[in-house]
Design brief:
By secondary structure, the chain is an alpha/beta fold. About 45% of the residues lie in helices and about 15% in strands.
Length: about 475
């Protein structure tokens, strides 16, 4: 039996999948994940941030596939379960491409699988996540300042701003459609002003209609750009995500898929979360056609419990790096990594969080980094700048080739400097873009240049050798 094409997957989601109450599906996730954790003897070690156990990584991978075959993926729009045969999954994994090209002209990059301990530098996709910037010129200047860094290989743009033409945006409304189109044109203008017209970017609006509106070969998402498509925790999709997948396949642009599990939710503890994260990843392969080029992804993130979805402390780091290693060892395509920090921009704490996450992910075989140094927890508008993107890009090149045991010791040292500052609400709020940067010259203010140099020197003192 061969792997089903996307149109057959849609048929299962819309017409033929078994109708199931969502709570029944969620309870099955919890029970099956708990069973598999025991059967595969998966145990969390709070002293380990970067695991170095290949057999454990393989056990996590095998448990994740077993869980996916048992459960499938739940379509929230139809209340149907999309199921697959083992032979279909095996066939899809055989078809995976080991690389994808992003961008055009002199900005074309080839994203390839690095593997654990690789000396190949990662691809750096910069950006700012969910930080409520004003429409128009300020938004353009933010992304222009990020794109001007030559180490940035692409941009992550989204989720959308809170307003369109000055009015509050609701998902799926005409205002969301208009905003999706406008954000893509602003991103393209930022790239042009940066002197890098072929630079790749990915549009990350939650609604299909907004991302579809963003597609325009002249002034928006090109075929060398992408649409961001998420697996909803845990193991869920909907017509919005499926609609974006359908359009991306028809249009021919890149599908940038994402997924990760929540520790303390239906996955259970950190051990269950790593198993479910692998299942989420397999779901993206089978449902979002992650096995078909052009596509890249960011999977295996396990977010810590609590109201702030961070991944820069344990058990989140242990789980995320373990799933990253499981994918790196058992999947032949590239897989990336988001950074979710507790602290805001322009703080020592966020720089250290970015450093810990970057070092751990490189050692674990991640291939591509998206939106470096981003604080998802929204406490005030305009939190985000080019400076944390620059730091994670330079550090990404400095830490290339680091071994897992060495990375674990480095990360331990760095995490000890900030873990007690993580609160139930995150950490220090940080500074806004206009506080950190002169918006006329698009250069960081002296205070933050000095902070940047201080944090870079701190990393050098730990033994990292910067190439840039």
């Amino acid at each position: 039996m061969t792997a089903p094409d996307f149109w057959e997957v849609l048929n299962r989601a819309i017409n033929t999948g078994a109708q199931t109450p969502v709570r029944d599906f969620d309870m099955k996730i919890f029970h099956e994940a708990s069973r598999l954790v025991k059967e595969h003897d998966i145990k969390y070690d709070p002293e380990v941030y970067v695991p170095n156990d290949d057999s454990l990584a393989d056990d996590v991978w095998n448990a994740g596939i077993e869980l996916f075959l048992e459960l499938g993926m739940y379509c929230m729009s139809s209340k149907r379960v999309i199921k697959f045969e083992e032979s279909e999954v095996k066939d899809a994994l055989k078809d995976v491409s080991d690389s994808v090209e992003i961008g055009e002209g002199s900005e074309k990059r080839t994203v390839t699988r690095r593997g654990i301990g690789s000396t190949k530098p990662p691809v750096i996709v910069g950006g700012v996540i969910e930080s409520d910037f004003p429409e128009g010129e300020t938004f353009i200047k933010l992304y222009q300042s990020i794109a001007e860094d030559p180490l940035i290989d692409g941009l992550y743009v989204g989720p959308p701003l809170h307003t369109s033409e000055g009015h509050t945006v609701r998902m799926g409304t005409p205002l969301a459609l208009h905003l999706g189109r406008r954000m893509a044109s602003w991103a393209r203008e930022a790239i042009r002003r940066a002197g890098r017209p072929g630079l790749h970017f990915v549009s990350a609006c939650p609604s299909a209609i907004a991302d579809i509106a963003a597609c325009n070969p002249e002034d928006g998402v090109r075929k060398s750009d992408g649409l961001f498509i998420s697996v909803t925790a845990e193991l869920k999709t909907d017509y919005e995500a499926l609609g974006k997948t359908a359009y991306a396949l028809d249009y021919g642009c890149i599908r940038a898929t994402h997924g990760g599990s929540i520790i303390g939710g239906w996955a259970g503890g950190p051990e269950g979360a790593v198993v479910v994260s692998i299942s989420d990843f397999i779901a993206s392969v089978m449902v979002y056609q992650h096995n078909l080029d052009p596509v890249y992804g960011d999977h295996g993130l396990t977010r810590c419990p609590g109201p702030v979805p961070i991944s820069s402390v344990n058990p989140g780091m242990w789980g995320t790096e373990l799933t990253g290693q499981a994918i790196a060892r058992n999947y032949k395509g590239p897989n990336g990594r988001f950074f979710l920090t507790a602290a805001g921009p322009g703080t020592e704490m966020q720089f250290r969080e970015v450093a810990a996450l970057c070092i751990a992910s490189l050692a674990s075989g991640r291939d591509l980094f998206c939106g470096g140094g981003i604080r998802r927890y929204k406490v005030k508008p305009m939190l985000g700048s080019a400076l944390e993107n620059k730091f994670h890009a330079e550090l990404g090149h400095a830490a290339t080739g680091i071994k897992r045991d060495d990375a674990n010791e480095l990360v331990k040292t760095i995490v000890q400097k900030y873990e007690k500052k993580v609160t139930k609400d995150g950490g220090p709020w940080g500074f806004t873009f206009d506080e950190m940067y002169d918006l006329e010259t698009l250069t960081p203010r002296q205070k933050f240049i000095e902070l940047y140099d201080k944090m870079k020197n701190e990393m050098k003192d730990l033994g990292l050798e910067f190439k840039y």
